Structures are given as C-alpha cells and as structure tokens.
Amino acid sequence: MKKAFVNGLVKENPVLVGLLGLCSVLAVSNTAINSVFMAAAVTFVLVFSSLIISIIRKLIPDQVRIPSFIVVIATFVTIADLFLKAYFPEISKNLGPFVPLIVVNCIILARQEAFASKNPVHYALADALGMSIGYSWVIILLGITRELLGFGTIFGHRVLGAWFHPFVVMLLPPGAFITLGVMVGTMRWIQAKTSKS
Amino acid sequence: MNNIWLILIATILVNNFVFSYFLGICPFLGVSGKASSAIGMGFAATFVMTMTAFVTWLINRYILIPYNLEFLETVSFILVIASLVQFVEMFLKKVIPSLYKALGIFLPLITTNCIVLGLALLGSMRNYNLLENVVFGFGAGIGFTLALTIMAGIREEIEFADVPEPLKGGGITLIIAGLLALAFMGFSGMLGGG
Predict the structure, then answer these.
(1) Do A174 and B179 touch (CB under 8 A)?
(2) I want to staple B128 with a disulfide (CB 3.0 to 4.6 A). Which of A114, A165, B133, B172 is the partner?
(3) Do B74 and A182 touch (CB under 8 A)?
C-alpha cells in the first residue's frame, strides 16, 4: 500500500515521467495561485473517481468500462467546476475551459483503467493520492517558476525588487513549454545520477 | 463572409489550438514522431472536429439552453463525442473502406483527446452561429494538423542530432514546441494590425 502511494510522487510521476495530462499543466500554470486551484480540482476528481470506480469495479461490464469511467469522472468534474464557479468566480474565469477538460485528462482515465478498476479500495485510494500529489507538486512548482520570472512575484507578493525586468514570455505559451521541457530534462538527469550511485 | 475568413485564419494560425490553448498535446508528443502518421492523425481529427462542432452546436442550442441544462454540458458533450467517433468509424468502414484504412487506427484515440472536447466547450462559450461554429471546428482541425506535421518533420531531423541525454524524448520535444509557439506568436500581428 505504501508502494502504491510513493510510486506516483517521483518514480512514476504522471507529468514528468509519464508525460500525461500536459494540457492543463501547461495552460493554467501561468501563476502560482491558478496552479494551486487546478491541482486541488484534479486531486478532488482523481481521488473520488478512483474511490467510486474501485467500489463498483465488479459491477462494470468489461465492454463498456471506458464510457462508465468517463461518466463517473465527468460527474465529479462537473461538481468541481460548479463549486469553483460559485465560490471562486475570478479563479474559475482564469482557468476557463480547463476545469471541464479534466474529464479527458489522460492521468485520470489512465489511473482508472490501470489501477482503480483492478484493485481494492484502500490501494486505489493510496494510488490516487500519490498520483495527485505527484501532479500537484509539478504544476505548483511550474506555476511558481513562471510567475516569479514573468511578474517577479510569488502568489501575488513581490519577491524580486525593482531591478528585475520581467520576462513576459514566461507567462505566454512558449514559456510554459520551455519551462516544462527543462523540468522534464532535469528530472531525468537527477534520476540518472541517483540510479548510478 | 468576412467573419468566416477571420475565424478560419485565426484558428489555424493566430490562436492555433496546440500552441495557444495547449489542446491536443498528448498526440502531439506521442504520434508526431513520423510525418506520415501525423498527417493521418491530423485529418482524422479535422474530420471528427468538424462533425463535433456541428453536432454539439445543435445540442447546445436546441436541448441544453431551452431546458436550462447547461450544467450537463461537459457530460453530454463527452458522450456525444464518444458516440460520434464510434459512428464515424462504422460509417467509414462500410462506405469508404479506403479512407477507413487510412484513418482507422487514429479514430478511437481521438475520443479521449482534449482537443475535441475543448473545441466543443470553447465553441459554446463564444456564441457563434452554426456556420461559424463549423468553420471554427474545421479551422482548429487544420491548425492541429499543421502543428502536428511541422513537429513530426522537426523530430525526424532531431533523430540524428546530438541531443543531451536527459533531454532526449519528452524534454527536447517540449522545448521545440516552445520555440514553435514563439514563432506562431508572430501571427498575432495579422489580426491586431488589420
């Protein structure tokens, strides 16, 4: 059970190693606060979908499993979307279509197909939590990096002084691609280093 | 008529779905290793996206809005897309087997591709009329094909380049995508200036 949890954090990190769910990671990580909300939404959807699907895994006929997973996921996504719209309208506007798009986020469907539909509830939960934390730290780190270089702030607080000339491009799509590319490369480099010694 | 051209150019170049909305990144990184499969995937997606734009517009306008069911948007769109892809697959298999052979393997992959659902959701936010929405879908598909093909061409070359070990695969692809996105930003002057 511990192994199911730890796997998603670094070794099989869904974003950096699996390269899954990149749409949302790249799109909403322009500020740290957006990243935090996106991470929370994905965590909510992944944990609850895994829970439900693991509970009903013996009732789902094999032929229609993918549509069944999608309906369960879509339900939780709608809950998350409506919740954000009601309580955090400003954030919801920033995240735009990327909250409803969690439905087709490969990470979530892949975890249901590969894990939750085949394992008992407590394992499925451990796996979902591990994967969510793995997703969250990457997107939040990316958000902090892009906000720091793009605005000179972190969570809206000015960190770098007036001498700092912001790189606006970090907030735009190219900044997202390049920063994530560098993160993926750094991760591989660290993994190669540690596995050798 | 002007409006239609504007939407078409905007979705292909200026607001390219891959480079400015980050939609359809998964096949962009996965499939785009070879130019031939990139084109197949691109055309299959364009076909499905044009159909999706048409069908989801009708559903949104005649079912969801009149009955105040907009909160079911996500669930209903994804089900429609899944069944539409299934239907297109069966239709092509029976009627145009040669096209089915060319596109066949890519069709099921498209269901879980965020670019199609993203298109449906973005379209419903923009209050287009039916024709505009279909053009929006078609343009987005062509833009996706363009991005996929350019990327595949570059990656075929990268195979022979001396890429630092840790950046091989995902890392270098993302960085190239970043540079391409930077290049595509140049097109934004086309709309702003005119």
Answers:
(1) yes
(2) B133
(3) no
Contacts of A26 in chain B (CB under 8 A): 22, 25
- Are the beta carbons of A5 and A129 closer than 8 angstroms? yes
pLDDT at A55 (0 to 100): 92
pLDDT value at residue B105: 64
Residue A65 structural domain: 2-196
Q: Report which of B103, B113, B85 is spatially closest to residue B40, judged by C-alpha positions.
A: B103
The reported pLDDT for the residue numbered B194 is 41
Interface residue A127 vs chain B (CB under 8 A): no
Q: What is the mean pLDDT of chain A?
A: 88
For helices A121-151 and A173-196, angle between their N-to-C axes, nearest 10 degrees = 120
Structure-token pair, residue B141: 């598909």
- The widest CA-to-CA distance across chain B, in whole angstroms, is 59
**Which of the four pLDDT bands, split at 50, 70 and 90, describes residue B125?**
confident
**Domain count along chain A:** 1
Sign of the torsion angle spanned by Cα atoms A169, A173, A174, A179: positive
Q: And the tokens for B185?
A: 């930003």
**Nearest CB partner across the interface for B22, out of A26, A81, A106:** A26
- Please judge whether A22 and B171 are an interchain contact, meaning their C-beta atoms are less than 8 angstroms apart: no
Fill in the amino acid letter for A59: L
Which of residues B25 and A188 earns the better pLDDT score? A188
